[in-house]
Amino acid sequence: MSWSEMNLSNHEVEPATARDTEDDVARTIAEIESKSSWLHLGGQQGKRIQEIVNQAQDHDEFAAFQIWHTYLEEHLVFPFAATVVEYQRGPVRQGARVKVLDITFLDETYGTIVAVKQKDGVYELPLCDLKVTDADAEIRQLVEDYAVWFANR
85: closest CA among 141, 135, 131, 134? Predict the structure, then answer.
């Protein structure tokens, strides 16, 4: 079971005077969830994602976007090869092999956008739509962690 639920029979519960208000409970639940919400993935990936998300001062979605974006800017090493794994509008199609050149900007809808080179030009794509094919293990892992976070946020 999740930390937030428990099943008890009537004989296992005794009446008590309430100590906390409903607002206290809601605030505490939000705090616990914000610090542990990615651990359900299990293993190291959930811990890595949680460590990055916990760096956000405000626990809203855009703050997490900004934290990820900054973390990616500091830790990704360019260029690296990738495959487009999601459907795209425009000239770069799903399945295309590209070279990721750099981070270009942060978009409120699509997250971190990167510049990619395909044989006929340079384009911008969401990083979460790429799978690293030729880079060291740390880069592969970081992009995969980001894509998992982005898909499940």
Answer: 131
